[in-house]
């Protein structure tokens, strides 16, 4: 199908194609959709399903299809969390105390008060930052008031 500009500039007008070609185009699209639905484990379509043997050693195992909406949402969420980790580390650097060994430390209570103005996910972001080696602190989980005096040390700034 080619776009042909209308003489009145009212927008594109599609050149007419014959009826048989339209049917073939529709059938092609319908067949592509059917195949995709048969591969989808959550589809309720009837018919023989191809047996795709999952291999846990496959690098794509447990990952969404590249370029899918799920993949794009995951990448966007990862970028958002990474940005929050950078902001948290910058706040520790800006508001923490520098010790004689050059490391920067802030108490959990002070950080909690500062960071809650930005986000309510302080503990989750701290855990993510520790997982990636940006901060260090004692304990598995930090709780407001109980752990207000726990020191949080900035190990390195994220790049």
UniProtKB/TrEMBL annotation:
Cellular component per GO, a single term: sarcomere
Pfam annotation, one family: Costars
Domain of life: Eukaryota
Biological processes annotated in GO: positive regulation of Rho protein signal transduction; positive regulation of transcription by RNA polymerase II
Molecular-function GO terms, alphabetical: actin binding
Domain Costars positions: 79-155
SMART domains named among the record's database cross-references: Costars
Biased composition (Basic and acidic residues): 52-77
UniProt region (Disordered), positions on chain: 35-77
InterPro entries in the cross-refs: Abra, Costars_dom, Costars_sf
Protein name in the entry: Actin-binding Rho-activating protein-like protein
Lineage of source species: Eukaryota, Metazoa, Ecdysozoa, Arthropoda, Chelicerata
């Amino acid at each position: 199908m080619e776009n042909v500009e209308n003489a009145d500039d009212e927008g594109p007008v599609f050149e007419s194609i014959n009826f048989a070609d339209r049917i073939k185009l529709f059938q092609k699209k319908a067949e592509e959709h059917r195949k995709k639905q048969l591969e989808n484990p959550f589809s309720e379509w009837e018919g023989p399903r191809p047996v795709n043997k999952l291999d846990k050693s496959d690098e794509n195992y447990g990952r969404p299809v590249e370029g899918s909406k799920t993949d794009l949402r995951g990448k966007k969420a990862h970028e958002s969390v990474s940005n929050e980790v950078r902001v948290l580390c910058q706040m520790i650097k800006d508001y923490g105390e520098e010790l004689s060994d050059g490391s920067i430390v802030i108490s959990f209570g002070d950080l909690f008060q500062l960071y809650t103005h930005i986000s309510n996910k302080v503990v989750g972001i701290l855990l993510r930052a520790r997982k990636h080696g940006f901060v260090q602190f004692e304990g598995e989980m930090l709780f407001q008031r109980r752990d207000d005096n726990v020191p949080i040390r900035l190990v390195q700034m994220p790049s």
